[in-house]
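Quick one: examine the sequence and fold tokens given here and explain what the tokens say about the fold. Here goes:
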Amino acid sequence: MWESENESVGGRDYSNGVLTSSKHGVKTEGFEQRGQSWYVATDVPSDFLVQIGDVSFHLHKYPLLSRSGKMNRVIYESRDLDMNKIVLDDLPGGPEAFELAAKFCYGVAVDLTATNISGLRCAAEYLEMTEDLEEGNLIFKTEAFLSYVVLSSWRDSILVLKSCEKLSPWAENLQIVRRCSESIAWKACANPKGIRWAYTGKPPKVSSPKWNDMKDSSPGRNQVPPDWWFEDVSILRIDHFVRVITAIKVKGMRFELIGAATMHYAAKWIPGLIRDGTGAIDEGSNGSNSNGGSNSWKGGLHMIVAGTKEDLPTVQAKDQRMIIESLISIIPPQKDMCFSVASFFGY
């Protein structure tokens, strides 16, 4: 199953995506926000201030020091045991990720989702929340959620990869980008007969898939088209889209589908400058090169990149050039795929 609801792996239940820490030292029922400041709901006075940009967190040393190796080092290496403030402007994920990490330190339940897990995983690494300090610390738990929930879900893999755009180089170094790209590629190359629709509530022409473990022999059931994944991957930033397509190529996707997916992406991001052929994809074939030849692609692929300043869409010219160069680099060479690039881009 590719959706994250009700996941349970190896005796670990991640169905509700809620994290808690068993030890926290300061009794609290949660955090309170007042303007740009966060406070712990407790009668114990705050003795430690964490500043991240314009947001301040009025906290306590013990819950943080007991779980964060970085906090320990900063305080003890400063040789100032009375140090009561630290600035973490370079923390990946920003105030949002630190808020969740701090709540975890206090034993407050934290809801893990596809939109916050990558930032929290990177923040946990930055804060050095390892097993050396506490069993079941934040690095371990966020890794478990990524492995058991996110990577088993098509939708969550897409959302997490999208959220990694603001987490460079942390998400790359922690292999989150690579793992999500591989997960997406594997699912995109799966036999469409094993897919059923799971609507996302978005208006695209196609909806996201869900793995179907149950055999459905209904004669009237609609076949899943081989291009079902185009719209979902087209929301990705160009470098992440290239990573996904590269992984898909390695797994043996038909060249015609790869070319069509690339054209779909180009039409989405630079619609005023891209025109494609009248090709159609044979819906009766799957995505593997070994199961479909070039005859399934009806017509040629023509990427005509030309225009004037009046044709420019919202994407800046320098970004357009980067997108075009990246797309051309991943399109598989085929005799019926043509590229005409005008002097507008300096080619």
Q: What stands out?
A: The CA atoms of residues 165 and 195 lie 28 Å apart.
